[in-house]
Amino acid sequence: MKISDLREGMSNVSIQAKIIEISEPRSVTTKYGKRNVADALIEDESGEVTLSLWEGQINEVKVGDKVKIKGAFVTKFKEKLQVNVPKSGKIEVVR
Fold first, then answer.
1. What CATH number has the domain bearing residue 27?
2. pTM tops 0.70
3. Phi-psi region of 60 (alpha: psi -120 to 50; beta: other; left: phi over 0)
4. What are phi and psi of 59, to 5 degrees?
5. Most exposed: 25, 59, 82, 91, by fewest CB within 10 Å?
């Protein structure tokens, strides 16, 4: 699937993209308590989208990495699409 095909509410999404930017992690309060999250901007040939990196995912990737994302879901935050990878999903760096 291409980034340009993503729509709010989609689930079990698989995409391949390159990480072009990662924000500094910040602490947020969720229904599960305080958690760290960072926003990564990812792109493919069709466009770009924000990928939310939670806790351990933050240190798994770096700017410039090509990643394969599996089992993700798509939400909208502040009118922008976001890709989220739950514990059942996977972010894999492609070498």
1. 2.40.50.140
2. yes
3. alpha
4. -90, 0
5. 59
List, for residues 33-72, the tens digit of each pLDDT value.
999 999 999 999 999 999 999 998 999 999 999 999 999 9
Total domains present in the chain = 1
Range of the domain at 58: 3-94
2-21 residue pLDDT tens: 999 999 999 999 999 999 99
**Encoded tokens for 58:** 């933050």
Distance separating the N- and C-terminal Cα atoms of the chain:
20
Which one-letter amino acid corresponds to residue 12?
A: N
